[in-house]
């Protein structure tokens, strides 16, 4: 099967790291296609950036022109999953929910360790919206920004392990969720430092996407996530016009879609 | 004071109706500037459209180049308010929360009557996120789409009043919130039909924005809604590039901002 | 419009301070009539006093004999708002709810700083009952009694600012609510000390009462807050008989009402 | 032991019925003293009446001049229990909580059947405040007013049993709580009609008061229900002045207390 | 009346201590029969042991061959109460719920002090399941195992009183629940040390069982706790076969039941 | 990898059906070993049976003498998962939680359709305990007992599909969870009848167990699910003694463990 793994920021370096993590977790036979949004912030830390990123992720998936079987949104605590679910006829997995679910399976309560303190309320809101907050013991910040985490794994490890240990001792956490896609690759080291299970969102997201595809399950289309109604959507998808303006003439294929009446999302017929 | 009232869809007709409602509710001395997003759907019914609209609203406010004292986001149950709060140094009021708050002041529990059934889960999620769900007796759908509501006020009134009456009788609602900006202008008629208070979101949003400005209150900047950190944001704001691609050379003033390192939002110094 | 601002304790000095705060917050054209209950405690700190005060407030409003457009109950975390709503055909605003609502509009979570620790559980109960607890980060006590707060503003400011700063740093509050009517006049100083928005209940209550009146909204009468049924109520209202006993013959006008069959509340027809 | 059973309305007929129910439930050796408030409504249906009644109940207990071991507040869903707890150094039991607790012990979920629909929100609020709402399947109204229930037991039984059966069948109730003190005496008949346990509040309240006294447990005085602070309370207790005004010279003993500095409540030293 | 008090562990010494506590709390005329399970752990600290103990308790009651009027399950925070309720036609009281209920009656919030930290999540889960968590301020561990608590009352008292004081000061508890049956006998000393009400589960359980029997209330049989359906249950009850294997021929009376088609529980007809 | 799939009832026919379902869902390379408890009820419908079954499942796993990588507990809404987690050093997945998690991934809210009405409260309690109730729209009963469901798939399908359709239309469910292990094999037919995703617990449980093993995640051992402490456990495991009594001399290997001091669970070292 082919899984689209969509980074939420525009850093190609982060996209490559996410792809490595995803491929290490994937089963044999799973192809991971890692995508970077065509616009938006280089890192996502806050609501404005998260909303912009959500649309950039939807745009990136909507303009992907091959078949695929599932989508994994690789940003922790970010907006947008519900929109992707409406657009795509295949399963969509947000790494926030994937990680929290697996953490619940291996413990009573879990704590999230994330990047900056400013992202804590947003993560808590996202978990509450997903109905996964009841067993969340705490959300703690390491104090390092997303790009710092990604650049200095040693410092990242120390900061994360310190907060993870406090989560276990003070907050009663039985397991730890790494609350930032930029922490990919650190789960084993944090597990060794704390002695509790540590869940990485990208690995969890890939595993759950594989499970859904394997079981023939996809988003229900009768209710909350029905496909968008046909209607006029000015400039959608956005990237062809944006890139046309920035880099010269827009690509012909994309230009056709720029004023399309409906949002649609090519996917492998299942 | 000057309030930016931002429609969430691209229908100029809806923008004009919202402006009429807002001006009827505003105090003497309040100037209402009604804005229409430069991209996005002609009506917002679902999560994909709501996320796209959220960014279009932020883009519209970010490219408005005069001073203003408050922003009212005029879409019911839509995404984006938290992002606008980070961008703007002035108060931002979402009509969803404004309406639910006033409904709580005039009754024990309130019900929302909205457009299509597919928007019900999104409205419930938004109210839950805002901590306003405890006193929400129900969210009911009239069965009419946003543009239908706006086009045929007679049919809209009958459908809304019928659901409002059931909300009072069956769900125990003490008051009704009109759950769609396209219902602007119907509150008095629904009140007469049901005998309970009926809250229109646009009027409520304007009144609360005026109150916040009057009391010198604005969004706290130390915590959840701190301004975005300085960073590279590709193509932000989006509309200059989008419109440049579609309509010819982008406007000079906007072009300067197109690859700016930080998101910022001009507002009247207070 | 005329707003009745009812102090919950019998201290005329507090009533005058509340009136000053309310008038500073009111729009041009709003007349604030400040009332002091005719019986009850000189300060309200605890449930017994709060219940007694609730009835004294209702008695004071029921025996006010001019027209008015709204009532603001100026005690933080006190009982009685629902009773007033049944009695009065005009909007009734409790400063507890008013302040918490505005705090929600300018931040993600808010903390309350109140007087004595013994009032904390009562305030939390009141916020929970009003459905406003979800976004309450904490309720903290300054350790000063109501009358101490009112007498020494310097000491009050230091104690409140210290707790407010801890609420922001330790509890994640984005804004502060002054949780005692006796703190009127301190909001600006606490805002300067902490850098976060500070909401004063009296100002908030007046602003919301003005908004409700301006929008033509008042308490729903079909459900939870329907007017009292006609029935025998011994000695209601209480103050004519009480004052007659204490000070000589009861006032003729009041005496007529002393054994009335129904509770009623004169208000301006709207 | 001596238990003060305080009716919340001024109907002596109701007081006598409550006393009969209480005495039937009491153990040998328990003396039930039934008290009627000296002011307030003849029946309590709504918040205004409930607040007034709460103070009348406190006044009645505060002016009772013999020793006693516990107080049972015999109004379902009414205000005031927390105030009584501050005033009295002996256990105070509200029949609402007593009945809901025993119902939880004999089933998974319980439903309340009360008098008029207008009292439903107040009962739900009271149960929520007491933390007893989680297992409340529903609160249903019989449609009969308090005094109607008390006057026509046949009609009361039919109306209550019909709602009780629907609570079991439709709402999943395992047991029924009679949600009005005026239903005293009907529990056995409703149990026969429905086949589920039926809890009468007065009987439950007496039993729990006996248990608390028997185990030497009384209200904690360090926290939420600490005794009132010494302070000036105008006209407290209220009844001596009220009765003095209405009926002639106030009773000497009571007059002494009319302007007392502190609220106190004589009780048997334990 | 006769109450079966069932220890959850196999320590006869603990059973005797529980019986002493129960008899001290019981009214005149109440006979307490203390039972020890025929299999299972010598102390219960954790979920595996708690589940095993739950079945051992049900087995012990099912093989008790005299009449009885109520059952008290004397393990704090343990599994099994719902199963016993299905088996027995008489009231079943779990000391966890009994203690938490009485604690709610004498304070606003209560804290539990238990044995080891590992039992804290299980107790919290049990309280949440019983709908008694809303008013639980905290669950604290003394750090002493069940058998240590039972063996050294001096050390137990010091450890419990220290946590109880912190619960009052730091967590806002108004009362303390002793969260381990092995703490029987310490309630008075902890109350003296802290000045707040202290509830012992065994005493509370006996008192509530007496109240239910006295009021003629027993588990509802139409819903959640209907008697088991007739069906093949291999080896039930378990103890006759277990003891037969271990100690020789099983007792004749028990052998008859060993492969019975239905679970039943002899009890006094009421 | 080898997964132990443990039926919760003693019906070998059900065990075979579960094994078929599990093997159809498993990936290549996964070996499913299906186990039947050695004692307990032939079907599990109610709390008594569920508790007994929980211990029988733990006994069955504790006496399994080969290596294995994960355990799936194949009873919907049953007790015991936490105990198994303490006993086993490998992942333990309860099909209730597995199914609800996958249902959350493919929709906003899910409904459960189960066997008899009497099991509804138990399932709701289990979902609440697992923190998975927030997104549960309803739990509906088909009215057929476990063994009826397993015997007549045609009748089962009709009854389940009817309730599923009502869950979608009336309760707003976006997906359906089959709430009884005896429904194995019906998911595709119910999906066709309703057009919404249908999750079978056994398939979900196997998939999640495979994911956990694949990602190297297992139950955290520092907190809520630490291994049992060493202590005397009379007759544990139970089955050797039970079978010795019933069928002759117990098996030698098992006899050694019959009075062991600690509970342990052989598993493949990972």
TrEMBL record, chains A, B, C, D, E, F:
Low complexity bias: start-end ranges: 245-264
Region (Disordered): 241-270
Family according to the record: Belongs to the HyuE racemase family.
Official protein name in the record: Aspartate/glutamate racemase family protein
Organism: Nocardiopsis suaedae
């Amino acid at each position: 099967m082919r899984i689209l793994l969509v980074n939420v920021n525009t850093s190609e370096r982060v996209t490559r790291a996410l792809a490595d993590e995803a491929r290490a977790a994937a089963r044999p036979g799973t192809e991971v296609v890692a995508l970077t949004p065509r616009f938006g912030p280089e890192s996502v830390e806050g609501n404005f950036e998260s909303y912009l990123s959500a649309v950039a992720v939807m745009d990136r998936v909507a303009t992907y022109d091959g078949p695929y079987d599932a989508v994994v949104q690789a940003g922790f605590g970010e907006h947008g999953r519900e929109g992707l679910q409406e657009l795509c006829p295949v399963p969509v997995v947000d790494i926030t929910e994937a990680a929290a679910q697996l953490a619940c399976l291996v413990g009573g309560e879990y704590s999230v360790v994330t990047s900056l303190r400013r992202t804590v309320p947003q993560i808590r809101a996202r978990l509450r919206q997903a109905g996964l907050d009841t067993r969340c013991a705490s959300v703690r910040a390491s104090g390092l920004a997303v790009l710092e985490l990604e650049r200095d794994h040693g410092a990242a490890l120390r900061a994360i392990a310190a907060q993870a240990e406090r989560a276990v001792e003070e907050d009663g956490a039985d397991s730890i969720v790494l609350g930032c896609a930029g922490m990919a690759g650190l789960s084993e080291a944090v597990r060794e430092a704390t002695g509790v299970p540590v869940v990485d969102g990208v690995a969890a997201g890939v595993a759950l996407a594989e499970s859904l595809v394997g079981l023939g399950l996809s988003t229900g289309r009768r209710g909350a996530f029905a496909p968008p109604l046909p209607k006029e959507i000015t400039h959608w998808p956005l990237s062809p016009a944006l890139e046309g303006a920035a880099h010269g003439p827009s690509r012909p294929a994309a230009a056709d879609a720029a004023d399309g009446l409906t949002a649609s999302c090519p996917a492998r017929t299942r």
